[in-house]
Specification:
Elements: H1 3-8, H2 16-27, E1 31-36, E2 42-48, E3 53-58, H3 65-80, E4 90-91, E5 100-104, E6 107-115, E7 120-121, H4 129-146, H5 178-195, E8 204-207, E9 216-219, E10 222-229, E11 236-239, H6 241-248, H7 262-272, H8 277-280, H9 283-305, H10 310-318, H11 321-332, H12 334-346
Antiparallel strand pairs: 1-2, 2-3, 3-6, 4-6, 5-6, 7-9, 8-11, 9-10
Helix pairs in contact: 4-7, 5-9, 6-9, 7-12, 9-10, 9-11
């Protein structure tokens, strides 16, 4: 399905009473529900009568069942690799299945249950260099666990996929501010001329592709320590450096040294999974491409879904820093950014 159509499809709307019935009959789980915010799916936090916690995930009907199975099999693969990074565990149905089909309003949705990970969202705590470095190490270990994993659903079509950042041109009309629209267009132009021709030569694998503050958990007793990673919905096969670029795009130091978080993050990733010169040479443009995606996609979604869309309202406010940080990176420039990152990687 076309990427724009996939992200604009109406989310599933299962009633809580029906969700409780599905949990009891198919997963032998009974308890109470709490709705969770999602961009395109429907999720419930489940607290059972004996205090265990899970997440019931109901996939958007636009998502192909193979893609959902890809996400499930990836979690099972990570578990089998004994990855040091905590990730959700798949709960099988009473008949041993990893997912079930559900009919909601004449549409079929694939549903599964995963364990709920404890911790606080990274977005809810202050991020310093130590936490940024721990995130880099976490991302690298997660990619090590995913290395070698293959699945028929790994090439899903996503508007957030940085391999297709040139598709963002279709959304420029929704960026009302002239100066900001020009800045975003410049990022897309740089992607077209500097990055896209070099993508086939980069090492690639399945990556999480969405390591931002609402998908990473920190420990409640130590806000510098990573507790786990959630939401594998944007996972796909892509150049490995895009994992680094996507996470780095959310490490936005708005005051002082603009790279005080990105530098230790990239350095820590490099210590676990050494980055190549060809990869670090593209990092500046890939980070800017992700910031441009954030700016344009959220504005497009707000226009499509209207002023009452909760996802748009919540994220439009929290992502205002993307505009400021893009301007800060443009002021630093490609050469200085790359020199700083490579210098950080060279440090022992």
């Amino acid at each position: 399905m076309d990427a724009i159509a996939a992200i604009s499809t109406v989310q599933p709307k299962m009633a809580e009473e029906q969700a409780l019935q599905v949990l009891a009959e198919s997963f032998d789980l009974r308890g109470r529900l709490k709705p969770l915010l999602s961009e395109r799916d429907q999720n419930f936090r489940v607290t059972t009568e004996d205090g265990r916690e899970y997440v019931l995930k109901i996939a958007n009907s636009a998502e192909h069942p193979v893609t959902t199975d890809f996400q499930i099999r990836a979690l099972l693969h990570i578990e089998s690799r004994h990855c040091p990074v905590a990730t959700p565990r798949i709960r099988r149905t009473v008949t041993g299945e990893v997912s079930i089909p559900l009919r909601i309003d004449a549409a079929t949705h694939v549903s599964r249950v995963v364990s709920y990970l404890p911790g606080e969202l990274l977005s809810s705590v202050a991020t310093g260099p130590r936490l940024a470095a721990n995130l880099g190490e976490c991302a690298a270990h997660l990619d090590l666990a995913l290395a070698g994993f293959e699945h028929a659903g790994e090439n899903q079509t996503l508007l957030w996929d940085m391999q297709r950042a040139d598709r963002l041109r279709e959304l420029l009309q929704y960026v009302a501010d002239d100066a900001l629209r020009t800045a975003v267009r410049n990022c897309i132009d740089d992607f077209d001329t500097r990055v896209k021709p070099r993508l086939p030569g980069l090492r690639a694998q399945v990556i999480h592709a969405d390591l931002h503050g609402d998908n990473v958990l920190v420990r409640t007793d130590d806000h510098t320590a990573i507790a786990g990673v959630i939401d594998f919905g944007d996972m796909l096969r892509a150049p490995l450096i895009m994992e680094v670029a996507i996470a780095a795009a959310y490490l936005r130091a708005i005051e002082g040294d603009a790279l005080r978080l990105i530098a230790p993050f990239v350095s820590a990733f490099h210590r676990v999974v050494p980055l190549q010169q060809a990869e670090t040479s593209l990092l500046f443009d890939l980070v800017r491409a992700r910031l441009s995606a954030t700016i344009s996609i959220l504005r497009w979604r707000a226009a499509m879904r209207g002023a009452t869309d909760k996802y748009s309202l919540d994220y439009m406010q929290s992502e205002r820093s993307a505009e400021t940080f893009l301007a800060r990176l443009d002021a630093i420039g490609r050469d200085a950014f790359t020199e700083r990152v490579r210098g950080a990687c060279a440090e022992k």
